[in-house]
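step 4 of 6: structure.
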Amino acid sequence: MDIIPALMDGLWIAVQPHNLALAVIGVVVGLFVGALPGLGSVNGVAILLPFTFVINEATSDPAAPMIFLAAIYYGAMYGGAISSITLGIPGASTAVATTFDGRPMALKGQADRALVTAAIASFIGGTVATLFFTGFAPLLSSVALDFGNPEIFALMLLAFATFIGLGGDDIPKTMFSIFFGLLLATVGFDTISGEPRLIFLNEREQAAVLGMVGADPEAVPFFDSVAWFSRGIQFLVLAIGVYGIGEMLWTINASRYKVTMTETTISAKRIWAGIVGMKDAWKGTTIGSLLGFFVGILPAAGATPGSLMSYGVAKMTSRNPRSYGEGNPDGVAAPEAANNSASTGAMLPMMTLGIPGSPTTAVLLAGMVIWGLEPGPRLFEDRPEFVWPLIGSFYVSNLVAVLVNLAFIPLFLAVLRMPFTILAPVIFVLSIVGTYAAYDNMNDVWLMVLFGFGAYFLRVLDYPLAPAVLAVVLGTTAEEKMRQSLLLSDGDFAIFWNPFFDRDGKGQDWWIAPITTWIAVILIALPIVLWAVRKMRGGSSVEA
Amino acid sequence: MKLLKNLTLGVAAIGMALTATAASAFEPSKPIDFVIMAGKGGGADKMARLMQSIVEKNELADKPLVPTNKSGGSGAEALTYMSGVGDPDHSIMVTLNSFYTTPLRQPGLKVDNMAFAPVARMAEDTFVLWVHKDEGITDFEGFLKEVKSRGNKWVMGGTGKNSEDNIITDHLNEAYGLDIKYIPYKGGGAVAKDLAGKQIQSSVNNPSEALGFYESGDVIPIVAFTNERLPMFPDTPTLNEVSDEEDFAYFMQRSVVGAPGMSDEAQAYYTDLFTKVFESDEWQKYKNDKSLMGEFMSGDDLSEYWGVQIENHEKILKASGAIK
């Protein structure tokens, strides 16, 4: 089928009144779900899945239910930025990287600009990804198939390499932060062996330890560590702790009881100024749009790693990396373009391979099965009346989302007019409610508070926190893929760096993983070597 | 979240006529925790979400089922979670055979299978040996020849360690003197994708997991590990047909269980609920389309079935050296 006429047909169906209305409702719902801490696209889509049966029966349009859910997905990607920027609490895990520079911009009185940048970058990211999707879906799905275990591990290694640049100049502290994050990522049940790790002691062992230190085991209540840690450390719990509670404590410390109020005014003129100001953020937008899409199409990744990696790459390739974390518009644009781009990208393996690339697409996949569609390699050929209107709706929803988002900006900015003495309790309450809402688990709330205090102390001691947060996100996948690769190679690390390593007894060459690995190794080694050289020359911290 | 949920339910209720029956004494008073013992995108996950949607679509329950994947440690995470859950009357779980194998392998978990409430066995899933079409293998004999010629470079992907897939792989290695390498994945979806991408050489996916790539022609079925040929693959022989001395068939339960400590009333409610799911057109269609077998089973029959299965799995795992 020719792409252009098929797309035109699809666009026409997507702008039919019922589909357009669904897209608008979906985007608005998504925007608020995304903006509420703890609730992300996955919650919104899962909660509203039953509602799609009503849509299905009412419209008898096969694409309508999916158009609605996809609009929620996009809306949530836009919405996540809002609380990241105005409150400093990530609205969803996909918007964690947006807090890095979005919050500092808001504190400098540029909240309106940060919000406009986020909205426009999201729009560009989403649209670029949709263009790729339209033109090359079948081709790109074969790229996803070429990424086996060693390739994905090499990609993770590349991501870790970009973290080194995230932590600033202090390489040992950055490394510490990464390893601490990796340690947290290992908590819970191990995929490969099935054994529990770092869930501490069972009842008998706890009694034994208490006996050893001379305490009466009967007097100390049993701490059910299995219930606490067997699920592992949930990423959102850590992120809200670090950026909600930790940030709030830091602000209290920094302002020392001075009541500060962030100055915000908003007018159409300022929104326009923000749009014009996008010229300072084109680089982040470009990196985010491209890298986000690529990470999104690989099953096992999704929008959260996509946005974090894009932030890392944008900072690393910047001529002025020090301005990142201080309120650089590129630092807002990169993750925001990336999470939208990646969420479109993640639709690709879901539709063409039947493999969800993110938690949200797993729910969407279930939806498709229920509506009688069979996601997989034949979907594009068998069900064009579903596929093309959906792709058409990606364009429409993105446009709707950016307009709705810009229209709501004055409302979101009102939050910032609250003095910090009011805002701090609000952040505290939202952090707790958000953590609880995410997994319905009270243990998570305690862990979140603990992480918040931990983050505050690490920050006082000048440890960079972003690398630890990133390591928690990618650590689990990286470890799983590394160990699967090593099983494949009988423990030989050559599978990662040697293109001539014989994986399957057929003597083929494999280039993707080794090339990626070598780039990663160079990226990791370079700053460490430069740092060592600087140290030897007399400890000057001036950049070479 | 609550507000949104209520809104949705409200709209859904207006949109559809309420047909829920209130026959049993127990009625759920809050959303039902619907735990899935496996990762996203695999056979168990797809099936659980289908059950959930059948319940939602036909308004079979007043409270929604809320699916959560607990895939860690071949189901160990789900089993420990269910054993310690605070409100057993609102906690049910979709299980597979790791329900037997994981507690056998990890006695430290202190999970007692028989303490779980036998709500309903919805089907028995089947296993088929798949290879990529580019391997040039068309029958089991060719498979054996090719695998032997690759030494230890032939890789089988499967879901979890000592899982169903691992048990079948061990059997092939032992019975035919092969040296197939087994690599555990998080879910059947990831296995299917890596087979289609030629990252691994074979899989023993359930038909529902491999169907997409079978229809596109990427993967081909070699043998079925069943007693009779599957209606969907009439040209694919069973392992017992192609091998003289074989008597090997292996199935996986697709059952719904209640948390240990569930009241009899609640168990009766869920058995009734899943009987309706089982009898629905959607479920029957899915069962046919995906080559699922097995009749509905619940209560004492299901407990008895578990007893036999646990005994069999203990033998299998002992034979393969996975447990002592």
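step 5 of 6: annotate
 - Strands of chain A lie at 188-189, 196-197.
 - Residues 16 and 157 of chain A are 46 Å apart (CA to CA).
step 6 of 6: archive
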